[in-house]
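hi! just following up on the protien thing from before. the input was this:
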Amino acid sequence: MIDAEGSPLDGAALYRLLAWLSPSYPIGAFSYSHGLEYAIEADLVRDRATLTPWLAHVLRHGAAWIDAVLLREAHARADDADRLDELADLAAAWRGTAETALESAQQGGSFLTITRAAWPHPALEAFAVRRGQRAIALPVALGLAGAVQGVPVAALLHGYLHGFAANLVSAAVRIIPLGQTDGQKALAALAPVVAEVSVAALVQPLERLASAAPMVDWASMSHETQYTRLFRS
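and the predicted 3d structure came back as:
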């Protein structure tokens, strides 16, 4: 099997990719909505027609876009400990709100802990020791794991962005509530966006990386004081 960048994706690498990005991988992704819960409370998102462009914007201009470029860079710098540590610090500081910072750091720390136990590798152990109690953003942990476990970066990017979108669709299905079929229609509509962002992230210079999703950040900050909440973000 060949991934989108032309790199071979063998059965073992595909298996690891599917395992890591499965909803059953116990990193707690199901407990986060990335501010979507408040966007629904504020009637900014109310159905499939409003959900799909909201998520497309997160993918193109929000945290998903930032994560994709950070993941690519972590994958490329997996054998450079100093640069990888600098990247981990940058990624930990990049989130715009307290809840989305928790979202990334908690999942990143959990991913690294679980992957070290189930899919051990000396580079993962060394990275965990160096980081100590400092935050580990999910895209950095995943990018490192992919690099040392032989998962090509293009496939990793595509899978990560699909998982990001799918988790938020799942949240919307539970909150709005949105029917399961409409949820899958929204996810299907986001397929070209995921493909577009995956390709763009492969060539985006890190020093020119930026986001433009102020409404998403506003929804996330407003969620901190929302009266009734199902999700942690």
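The chain has a mean pLDDT of 95.
DSSP finds twelve helices and no strands in the chain.
cheers
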